[in-house]
Amino acid sequence: MSLSRIFDIARSSLAAYQGALDVTSHNVANAANENYSRQRVNLSTTNPQALAGMIWGTGVKIDQITRARNQLTDTQIRNNNSTYNDSSQRSEILSQVESLFPEPSDMGISSLINSFFNSWNELAVTPNSPTLRTNVVQAAQKLSSQVQTVYQGLDEIKSSLLEDAKSKVQTLNNLLKQVQTLNTQISASSIAGAENNDLLDQRDAVIDQLSQMTNISVSYNSSNAAIISVGGVFAADQNVSVEFKISSTNDNLTLTTSDGSNVANVQGGELYAELDSYSTTINKYQNNLNDVMNTLVDAVNSVHSTGYTNTNPPETGIDFFDGYQNGILKINDKILSDNNNIAVSADGTGGNGDIALKIADLNSQKLLNGSTIADSYSNLVSNIGNDKVSADQVANSTQLILQQLQDQKNSYSGVSVDEEMTNVITYQRSYDASAKLITVADQMLQTVLNLVQ
Amino acid sequence: MKRISDLSISNSYLNNINLLKNQLSTLNTQISTGKKINKPSDSPSGTSQILRMNNQISQMDTFTSNIQNGLAFVNETSFAMESIQSEVVNVLTSLTSVQNAANDGNLSSFADQIDLSLQSILNFANSEYDGKYIFSGTDQSGKPYGYTADGKSVEVKLNDVSGEQSIRLSPNVLQKINMTGQEVFGTIVKQDGNIDVNSNINDVISNQMNIYDAEGNQYTLNLNYTKTAANTYSLSYDILDSSNNSIYSTPPTAKTVVFDSTTGAMKSLDGSSSFSFNINDSSKKINFSLDLSSLEEKNSSSSVSLSANQKNDIFNTLILIRDNLKNGIKPTDEQVQIVKDFSARIVNNLSANGNIANQLNDTSDLITNQQTNVEVLLSQKQNVDIAKAVTQLQNMNYTLDMNYKLASMFLPQSLLDYL
Fold this sequence. Notes:
The structure holds two protein chains of two kinds. Chain A has helices spanning 4-29, 71-100, 109-125, 130-191, 197-213, 269-304, 333-337, 354-361, 373-413, 417-452, and strands spanning 39-45, 49-51, 54-56, 60-67, 216-220, 226-230, 233-236, 244-249, 252-257, 263-264, 321-325, 328-331, 366-368, 371-372. In chain A, α3 (109-125) runs antiparallel to α8 (354-361), α3 (109-125) packs antiparallel against α9 and α6 (269-304) runs antiparallel to α9 (373-413). The radius of gyration of chain A is 38 Å and the shape is rod-shaped. The two termini of chain A are 22 Å apart. Chain A has ten helices and 14 strands. Chain A folds into two domains: 4-68 and 414-452, no CATH class; 76-400, no CATH class. By secondary structure, chain B is an alpha+beta fold. Chain B contains seven helices and 17 strands. Chain B starts with 5 loop residues before the first helix and ends in a 9-residue tail after the last helix.
């Protein structure tokens, strides 16, 4: 056994601990990087040598640099990401919808419907009063204006949802392209026999972003490439990435491949919230509002047309509203130009307000699915509130789950500066000791050399 | 043992602080608006209840406003009728004085006094309130009463002064607020009795009575009910002069009278639930209402009769008295009785009008109570308990301060500080 072996062992030790300190400094540098997984140095002994009938150790080496990552937690985070981003995006959309309905307040449609019917009740007391007739027209105009504002507001939200969904699909396509590129690089390094931990982290971060946008599934092939499918449609591997687009059919939005051959079954993520809100939720609100207004228009017109105007001669068969369509409540032009054309008399005499009373009575009649017009409208408002509350509740509960999962992930993969500094001390001491060993070996060699002199 | 990374600690602080800030923001909004529910998602069911209560309150405001307007109209009606009554009392005093032989030489001056009262009563009969003629029913196209073209008598200038004006006092209650011209001044011919339910198809049940024009001339009113189907009759009528010539007959189509097959009460008159109609022949100065509401169909022999509330109206009676006095003729007992009957009628109408005013006042009180109750409920549902909210706000502020303090103490620390 020669003294030079001590030098060899100390040299390998210095190299190993320098490498370990490199990894530690990489960890410390990424302590605040959310997408980073801490890396660990696996040290092992170098191959021993048999000499003089004994097995002698030859030192230490870095066997592997691994990243601390829990695949199960990742899968759970992605699943919950999809649910959380769906519900939180839905909650934001519903906040916008809710703000269009200023309820409960005097400016809400509910109050305006009531004011409209009350104005008929007041007109019934003095049917030939020009002021009260003007009040009826003004109440109808206020209602018309507010309904139009709400309906157009819903249309505007739909337009912005469509634009936003299109922009998100662009991002989705870019992310899928990134996955493909990263897959290619990771496969190449895998073939070379080394794990590229930082590339894996990057790819996981991109996949996490995808899971926020929509429901995805991820699997890995033998060359460690991630195979992504979006809503059941193949989307990316190491060779290709599929392009998606938003298709619109009959006011119904779907996510399809760019050639339209495959339709993704989108069931989660921000895209789902936007597509579903556009195609189902907001349409439902608009239809409910249409039902309320159509019922009001039909009921008022059916009574009003039986009444007589305050003109000379009195006329009958006149509708109060010209009609209602897509948020536009149109008051009869004849009434707008001369409020004497409001037909409140049942017998053609100017002091008869029976028709006004009948119209005012419509407010308490159950004309729409067993509810009054005002109650049907407040059901709509209540439904919007309930939808928002349930979206908030799902968002809050999945956020809690996500926080726990993120906490688990951070606990497993996150960098602890305390831990790294402890490692630094350990590795530094080992490095110091190895250096000291060289000094000792050098002194031993010097002693031997002095013997020769 | 669970491994704690630096990100775990900072994320935990951030989550807690965010949660607290969200709660603080909600409380801030509640305190600044004074309301617990500021948008539907704050409480979907609460919003629905608030909308309903707001609608109730707004509706009650309208009812209260209607009642105030109605009361003003009713009070004006009372004032007009009291003024008329005052004139009628003057007339009755004059008529008593006329009977005194000592005044035989002054009949002309009594005629002038009666003429003054007549003009006054006519003016009050055309009283207006808020642009509406008080006694014109629902026809507001002009003054309800005025002189005929020849100036000899007073006639109803409108087609119909019997229209009732009603206001809504609650979702289910309508209240009539006017005394119609027909009720106060008009002649009402009432149909009493019953028709035999077992009568045969085409059987005719007739009755007749004497009626008078504005100048006191006598005519005969004939009413015939012809059975056309079970519980259904065709009503035709005509007016004959003293020579038995028809001067007025049923308009082109006869009226259809239908009785309730179970109760025997009248069910409809020409499809309407109003069981009286006006007969007006201005050329002959005949104007009266025919009231069929008491007519029934019974399981007994037909027996029908007609009666009128007055022989002639107050205006034309006073004209006759005035003109006679001018000619030195004292009023007949029958004419004096007509004036007395009218006086009694006005008193009755004043009483009926007073009942309407009482009803309106009572309802107004009831609505005010209901409104107070709903407002209390609304306040409980909607308004924030400021003291409670401010206390919660202070607690949260304290907790937030603690979080900041802890974060500032622990977040910057690591092993590095001790190396």
